[in-house]
Amino acid sequence: MGTILNPYISFRDTARPALEFYQSIFGGELDLRPFADFDFAKTGNPEDDNKIMHGHLRAPNGLNLMAADTPASMEWKGGTAISVTLSGDDKDEMTTYWKKLSEGATIGEELAEAPWGDSFGMLADKFGVDWMVNIAGPGNTGQ
């Protein structure tokens, strides 16, 4: 395996429903490991036991997304200055991703033709994660 860069998103209590939502969009295998499954990871707070210590979505097209819940005993720095960017040239596939991510989302910029010739849009999904979607226009690579 070569080098892979994976977004790893921190949630307070919503890693499980967020990753299940992303699985409904991208498909693939979802591995969810709660704190209670690992002695070293137990926080001493029973409310944290079913929260996700580590979650990993592996989509069949090579997309990877990881996430975890921040235990109540730790400071959560929700909302970061990072966006997950989804780029590609399959207009139908990318538009489907956009539509599904848009469910319950706050749209920052509608998916539309951009000055550089691609289609581009920005949103914060229903879990507060910022996404940018770029669909390559004719002759562009989508990256």
Automatic annotation (TrEMBL):
Name of the protein in its database record: PhnB protein
Superkingdom of origin: Bacteria
Q: Which organism's genome codes for this protein? A: Paeniglutamicibacter sulfureus
InterPro entries per UniProt? Glyas_Bleomycin-R_OHBP_Dase, PhnB-like
One Pfam family, please name it: 3-dmu-9_3-mt
CDD domains under this entry?
PhnB_like (cd06588)
Q: Which residues form the PhnB-like domain?
A: 7-133
